[in-house]
Amino acid sequence: MDLSAAVEAMNALGQETRLRAFRLLVEAGEEGVSAGEIARRLEVPHNTMSTHLAQLTRAGLIRSRRESRSIIYMADLAGTRALLAFLVQDCCHGQPEACAPLLDAVLPLAACCPAPQRPA
User: Fold this and answer.
1) Residue 117 neighbours by CB distance under 10 Å
2) Strand (E) or helix (H) holding 72
């Protein structure tokens, strides 16, 4: 992830409704949530929610699929992983023990969100 993509992602998450929507979609997993249901749960007008979802999509943090007449949104774990990696890529300065507190906080999440397998 380059600096401009990271800035776009952080800007997308830097607004309360978008952050709440993103967290809702992370929690929902691959099943996702329809745009209308997101708006209902967050108590946001549909057209406003649509704008927020578009910004999160452009930032690479969520993606969507069409199911009949509904658009289902889900967190884009690859985009989220890229942002997290960008944020912490230089935290250790060559000293892995310096990152221990950060890794201790993140490692419990690895069990539920493993990285995709790389082809051999």
Assistant:
1) 6
2) strand 70-75
- Write phi, then psi, for 69 (nearest 5 degrees): -95, 0
- Average pLDDT on 80-104 reads 77
Res. 113: pLDDT tops 80:
no
Residue 77 CA to residue 83 CA, distance in Å, equals 10
Q: Which of 73, 106, 74, 109 is CA-nearest to residue 91?
A: 106
Q: Give the three-state DSSP class for 55.
A: helix
3-state secondary structure of 111: coil
pTM over 0.85: no
Q: Are 73 and 29 in contact (CB under 8 A)?
A: no
CB 83 within 8 A of CB 34: no
pLDDT for position 40:
98
Q: Which residue has the tokens 């007449």?
A: 69
Name the nearest CA neighbour of 104 among 115, 88, 116. 88
